[in-house]
Write a structure and sequence with these properties.
Helix content is 34%, strand content 25%. The N terminus is likely disordered. The protein has 147 residues and is of the alpha/beta class.
Length: 147
């Protein structure tokens, strides 16, 4: 897994997607959604107008990439198996702060993870105490870089 991420340590696209699963990183890069063919077709139609995105398979607690980036996307990560303790959340927030441009945003999606609500809300509280701006609800959070 480190070798996949290591290739992305220098010239990143303005948007970075991160997953611990190499298959998910490949699916996102290839714009494949085998579980939803209609959505995949729409995604492929948008391919030419969408911003460049780099997808990396890595552990969010130890991001092997260099910034700066405009947007970081975490889909279903926060509150899950690998990221539910305060120290893990703090590590992610510190690394995201390091990677993001001053006006960058961290987007967190949790559409399919109802059981994670308390942990995601705790993550948002921790982010607030660290100076992050927060909008949205626990299913779709937008965190703005601390000033």
């Amino acid at each position: 897994m480190a070798s996949v991420a290591a290739r992305h340590t220098t010239a990143l696209a303005p948007v970075l997607g991160l997953t611990i699963e190499p298959l998910e990183a490949w699916m996102a890069t290839a714009r494949r959604l085998p579980h939803d063919p209609a959505r995949e077709r729409r995604l492929r139609q948008l391919a030419d107008s969408a911003p460049a995105v780099t997808f990396v398979a890595a552990d969010a607690r130890h991001l092997p990439v260099a910034g700066p980036v405009d947007v970081l996307v975490c889909n279903g990560l926060v509150g899950g198996t690998h990221l539910h303790r305060d120290d893990d959340a703090g590590a992610l927030l510190r690394d995201c702060c390091r990677l993001l441009r001053q006006d960058g945003v961290l987007l967190l999606a949790n559409r399919f993870h109802d059981g994670r609500r308390p942990r995601v809300e705790r993550f948002a509280e921790l982010a607030l105490t660290l100076g992050w701006g927060i909008s949205g609800d626990w299913r779709s959070l937008c965190l703005t870089h601390p000033a």
